[in-house]
Design a protein that fits this description.
alpha/beta; 25% helix; 518 residues; ten-stranded mixed sheet
């Protein structure tokens, strides 16, 4: 960092001439001469192995791979949770799952028939998830205080319309997309939200879960036409993202791009999947059910959804370059949890979606095994982060808040569980976590701890199981061999961490009663 000039020894005229340079130098950070624009891209259910740069062989992701070549690729980064809502809450607050207000996907069902798609479209009182407290200090609010104009496009899932917990009331100057994650189970929805206003779209109301009847030919493309409508939400959301950048090109901005891709259902305009129909060849149609839509070419559609997300990332980068903003924009790309299991027509085994880890039900989304919580993360910032770098630094979603606080220059006594990984971005000595901790009340109730190369897992807590499985990830990244009987002292250490890290949840639905929750 250039040293500040000693004003006492400099003639007055020189001071006047040098004043702009003096002020610039004295207020600069060591690495970043000016606080960058920040774009945080959060994919939805994208697996560790579904990007080319992380080993994917079928799905093509050249633009995201280029991000990695121009920046840093993390190989030991973890989501906040193996499911959507808590992972997003943890991202926005810097709190780990044992301290989080939101710890599972809670649909706030005491309001009424929230799963009735027709009713929830018509009545905003049935839309959205349980709200977070008004007192929550979010990543958006922190960056607003740091001088940023903040925007969120995509999926929210952290508070229903009309509550204190909509994006505009939780730190975002602009919002466009899905308020409710249940509504996001249709990529041709009847409506989206722009700020606090419901925007009706030119789509019919088609409840997810419709099944092709026995008289419908599953090999006739006309059988699926009703599920391919007019206004595709990921395209509308992307357009608003580009508009937000254009509108704020003179401002310092933070864009949280929470894309609904490639989360089910399998839906994408036909033109995007033709390439993969040729690559993949003949496949069996998916006839629908389990809350998702039928699809004639499920594998080709899924691959196309990820490639379309990749195309959007490329367009985002080109937009920044055209506006002269790319050099001073920090881009982070990651996923909210691991890949979905064998449901809705998706075949994670075919695509090797979790990469080196087990995938499918019991291992991917919803579960605290590596396939459910180890996610890709790429960070790029031209001329600040060295290109084509890879790091094994152990990090998690609760590290994002303190990292962006440090990069944005935010200074306060804010408390969080995360540790800034800014030193890693600059190749400097990095403070490390003593451990990482997860819990989730869903899928039987689960806990997990990562400490160095050790991983401890508890499952089926709701069935009063307190047994701990222990894995050495340095030798067993797929978590095949439980070695708890060989290391009783390590098991006892991990059990103590599980006790220490877990605070009683405020919301009863997130209780793990066997742990003494009241």
């Amino acid at each position: 960092m250039p040293k500040c000039i000693n004003l006492v020894k400099v003639p007055f005229l020189s001071i006047i001439l040098l004043l702009p340079l003096i002020l610039f130098n004295c207020n600069s950070f060591e690495e970043n001469p000016s606080n960058p624009n920040i774009i945080f891209i959060l994919a939805d259910d994208l697996g560790y192995g579904e990007l080319g740069v992380y080993g994917q062989k079928i799905i093509q992701t050249p633009h995201i791979d280029e991000l990695a070549r121009n920046g840093m690729r993390f190989t030991q980064h973890y989501s906040g949770s193996p499911v959507c809502a808590p992972s997003r809450y943890i991202l926005l607050t810097g709190l780990h799952p044992g301290h989080a207000h939101i710890r599972g996907n809670d649909e706030w069902e005491e309001r009424g028939d929230v799963w009735n798609y027709y009713a929830a479209v018509a009545d905003t009182a049935l839309e959205g998830q349980r709200p977070i407290p008004d007192s929550t200090f979010t990543l958006g609010e922190m960056l607003q205080k740091s001088g940023y104009t903040t925007g969120l496009v995509g999926k929210w899932g952290l508070g229903a319309p009309g509550t204190v917990s909509t994006p505009n009331k939780q730190g975002f100057d602009y919002f466009y997309g899905y308020n409710c994650q249940r509504q996001a189970h249709n990529l041709y929805p009847k409506h989206l939200w722009e700020n606090e206003q419901k925007i009706w779209l030119n789509n019919e109301i088609i409840p997810p879960g419709k099944i092709l009847d026995s008289l419908t030919d599953p090999n006739d493309s006309k059988s699926y036409s009703v599920f391919e409508q007019y206004q595709y939400a990921p395209s509308l959301i992307h357009e608003k993202a580009l508009n937000f950048i254009e509108k704020n090109k003179e401002n310092q901005f933070f864009l949280y791009y929470a894309t609904p891709l490639p989360h089910l259902p399998l839906q994408i305009p036909k033109k995007y999947r033709s390439k993969y129909r040729k690559i993949i060849g003949t496949e069996l149609p998916y006839k629908g059910g389990k809350g998702y839509f039928p699809n004639q070419y499920p594998k080709a559609t899924y691959a196309a959804m990820i490639s379309y997300l990749d195309q959007q990332v490329g367009e985002l980068v080109q937009k920044l370059k055209r506006l002269g903003l790319y050099e001073n924009t920090l881009i982070i790309f990651t996923s909210d949890n691991g890949p979905t299991y064998d449901i809705g027509g998706v075949d994670p085994h075919y695509f090797n979606s979790a990469g080196p880890f087990h995938t499918g039900r019991g291992w991917g989304k919803g579960f605290i095994h590596e396939g459910g919580i180890r996610v890709p993360m790429i960070v790029t910032w031209p001329n600040q982060i060295e290109a084509n770098m890879m790091t094994t630094h152990l990090s998690a979603f609760w590290d994002i808040f303190p990292t962006l606080a440090e990069i944005s220059g935010y200074r306060n006594n804010q408390k969080y569980d995360g540790i800034s990984f800014k030193p890693t971005l600059y190749g400097k000595k990095q403070p490390k976590h003593d451990y990482l901790y997860w819990e989730i009340p869903e899928y039987g109730g689960q806990q997990a701890v990562r400490k160095k190369h050790w991983k401890a897992i508890r499952k089926n807590l709701h069935k009063n199981n307190l047994n701990i499985a222990l894995f050495d990830l340095s030798n067993d990244p797929r978590e095949d061999n439980d070695i708890s009987d060989q290391y009783p002292k390590k098991v006892a250490e991990m059990e103590a961490i599980m006790l220490e890290a877990h605070y009683d949840p405020i919301i009863d639905e997130f209780n793990l009663n066997i742990l003494g929750d009241k």
